[in-house]
Amino acid sequence: MATRLGKWRCYRVRLPYKDANDCLKNDVPAEAIMQCFADAADFTPVNLVRVESYLEDVTRLFEDTGALNGISTGWEALNKILRGWRDEEMTVWSGRNGSGKSTILNQVILNNARSQIRSCIVSLEMPVVRLLRWMIIQHYGFPNPSKDGIKKAVTYLNEYVFFVNLIGEAIPEEILNCFEFAARKYGVKQFFVDSLMRISIDLRNELASQKEFCSHLLEFANEHKAHVHLVAHPRKGRTDEQMPDKVDIAGTGDITNLAHNVITMSRVGEREKQNMISKGIDELFDATVMVKKNREWGDEGVVRMKFDNDVKRFTELKKYFVNGVEQYLEAT
Q1: Burial, 200: exposed, middle or buried (Cβ in 10 Å; 0-12, 13-18, 19+)?
Q2: Residue 235: per-residue pLDDT
Q3: Considering the chain, what percentage of its residues have pLDDT values greater than 70?
């Protein structure tokens, strides 16, 4: 009846019995009936809220200067640009083959562990055992740990790292079900999907299916106060060294539209390194990490990285760029 009359015109009166006649037969006093009408509630949709309901939360954001910052990314320069990984956000990573996306995400997971934050990764492009081997090398910082060292690393990582053991194509529901279990049972706060290319979607409606999957990841992040990292490959370029931009990510534009942060990686080729040497650049670097979207703060920037292939680690250089302006990390 309220729907037909218009819910904005109506109120819901809850009587102690089914209707007024039952109240009369059960000797409910008139005062109690009148109180029911006085306590009548309207049909305001649960998601329609007034500004004053956010007073405490918004006051907290102003009083706590770090409230809009997330947990450390693991690199000081990247922290300066992004201010960390925040809950209820999704970061899209992109870069050409061999640019280091999976490697750097391993380091993000290890940094989470050092901060006692649990992570869950579905790596559809690399078997778990090989990914774990890389992670142990990165953890120790040398390539040949002892048998006892391997056992200690596994014991340590077992507390903070969870894998979804799938390889090849995977259906979205299977991944999201594992993520939800990990979030609810183990308190996992960061989730990694590597990569979107291996998600099984309806190819007859590919772009809409990609958008739907990304939307589900965002809904998951919101519900569980988590952060989701999604690897999305760029379209094929002329060379592997060509720097991909935000618009170069393959698939629907909604991948980056929905993301809170977009980061692209680019490998520095030998030709570019020779150009650096000829220009007298002192600090050669092997890769660049470029923040192409940062919804919360708006800053974009570039962090230059050295890569140690023996231990699979990226380390940042002191000079970085924020909105095109050179910046330098303080000496430690």
Answers
A1: middle
A2: 83
A3: 97
Dihedral, CA atoms, 126, 131, 132, 136, nearest 10 degrees? 170
Q: Which two tokens stand for residue 149?
A: 């060292």
Dihedral-angle region of residue 98 (phi above 0 means left; psi in -120 to 50 means alpha; beta otherwise): left
Dist CA 70 CA 296 (whole Å)? 11
Q: Report the pLDDT value the prediction gives residue 240, as an integer from 0 to 100.
A: 59
Sheet holding 261-267, edge to edge: 161-163, 119-123, 190-194, 227-231, 89-95, 261-267, 287-294, 301-308, 313-322, 325-328
How does strand 325-328 pair with strand 313-322? antiparallel
Per-domain boundaries in the chain: 51-328
Kindly report, residue by residue over 98-129, the tens digit of the pLDDT.
Answer: 899 999 999 999 999 999 999 999 999 899 99
Instruction: Name the CATH superfamily housing domain 51-328.
Output: P-loop containing nucleotide triphosphate hydrolases (3.40.50.300)
Name the DSSP letter for residue 260.
Answer: S
- Given a cut of 90, whether residue 270 has pLDDT beyond it is no
Quick: pLDDT tens for 214-241.
Answer: 999 999 999 999 999 999 999 876 565 6
For tokens 């960061």, the residue is 190
Do 287 and 266 touch, CB atoms closer than 8 A?
Answer: yes
Residue 332 clears pLDDT 70, i.e. is over it? no
Alpha helices in 115-171 (DSSP H): 128-140, 147-160
The residue behind tokens 């990304």 is 214
